[in-house]
Design a protein that fits this description.
332 residues; six-stranded antiparallel beta sheet; 27% helix; 32% strand; globular
Length: 332
């Protein structure tokens, strides 16, 4: 069966297939590489011959609306976000709860969606290869709500340390010589997020209603980070075997203090970090005691003192194309 026929056969469950759409972030770290793929795919691959190209906006909600305006009612579109996890996240917000299907591409700063969906051995497959070799999977992302705002995360939603690290990585570090080299960037990501930046962060007060012996009690503590992971692999050195693509659940964990940092980094790399599984239908709600940064898939935003932040597995699913074999965890 020819590649184009193979792809349409895999999508036939969704009915009428519309024009593929590339959502392109021209400012992403690997933008040049991603744009090169878009041009080659449109020129050489029959499935993408008539594909549309939509550029992202600096305003996230504007990007979501622009993409939604291009999605035909009654048809299913394959959407390829050409950027990092934030671009993938924007596309997911636009298509959640619909029949449209996302395919990741490694064309940005962080590419956890591609790492988990498209990694074969040591190589991340290109979108057309995944369309030909993989299948459609349904994933429910993390639903993160602050006062008046809702965001979703495919990889990681967090308060504190890693959000500060993400802001730093997306700012000053972009000007570091060699940052666009994969090896240099990966080193800076892992070491900066988990070790270096921790020295510039202080703990923040966190309060949460906890059920104990059938009664709800208010638990107050100070932490450096509170996070929930949705994917089994985040970055190149963080593994969460407690969750999987097929299971509607997240994994909640936190870093209490600087004294726990070495154990934390070791356990997160070995996949042995302590925490709690967040099941579909359950939620975690915490109140922050001072203004801090929060993030979803590396996109940062302020969380004001006294705000309540809730985390749950979304009731709305997202269709994604991925390989049928799970990503290699500790062997990468």
């Amino acid at each position: 069966m020819k590649p184009r026929a193979t792809i349409y056969h895999k999508l036939e469950q969704f009915g009428d297939i519309g024009t593929p759409i590339f959502l392109v972030n021209p400012h992403s770290t690997r933008a040049k590489k991603g744009l090169g793929y878009v041009g080659n795919a449109i020129k050489n691959h029959p499935f993408f011959a008539a594909a549309a190209v939509v550029a992202t906006s600096a305003a996230i909600n504007e990007t979501i609306k622009m993409l939604q305006d291009r999605l035909d009612t009654g048809k299913t579109h394959v959407v390829i976000p050409v950027g990092g996890d934030t671009t993938f996240n924007q596309a997911a917000m636009a298509v959640e709860g619909s029949s449209h299907v996302l395919v990741a591409i490694q064309a940005g700063n962080a590419t956890n969606a591609a790492l988990n969906l498209q990694k074969q051995g040591r190589r991340i497959l290109l979108p057309h290869e995944v369309l030909e070799q993989g299948s459609v999977k349904t994933i429910r992302p993390i639903d993160m709500r602050t006062d008046g705002s809702r965001r979703i995360a495919f990889g990681l939603s967090e308060l504190g340390l890693m959000s500060n690290g993400a802001k730093f990585l997306n700012g000053p570090l972009r000007s570091v010589p060699g940052y666009h080299n994969d090896v240099v960037r990966n080193f800076l990501h892992e070491r900066t997020l988990l070790v270096g930046r921790s020295l510039f962060n202080r703990r923040f007060p966190l309060s949460e209603l906890i059920e104990h012996d059938g009664e709800e009690q208010l638990e107050e503590r100070n932490v450096l980070s509170f996070a929930i992971a949705r994917l089994p692999r985040i970055g190149h050195h963080a593994f969460f075997p407690q969750v999987s693509l097929e299971r509607d659940a997240g994994f909640a964990f936190e870093l209490p203090s600087h004294r726990e940092l070495l154990r934390y980094t070791r356990d997160i790399q070995n996949g042995t970090l302590d925490g709690q599984v967040l099941q579909l239908g359950h939620s975690r709600a915490v109140r922050v005691g001072r203004t801090i940064l929060g993030s979803v898939d590396g996109d940062t935003f302020p969380v004001e003192q006294g705000e309540i932040v809730s985390f749950a597995i979304s009731s709305r699913d997202v269709n994604v194309f991925g390989l049928d074999e799970p990503p290699q965890a500790l062997a990468a």
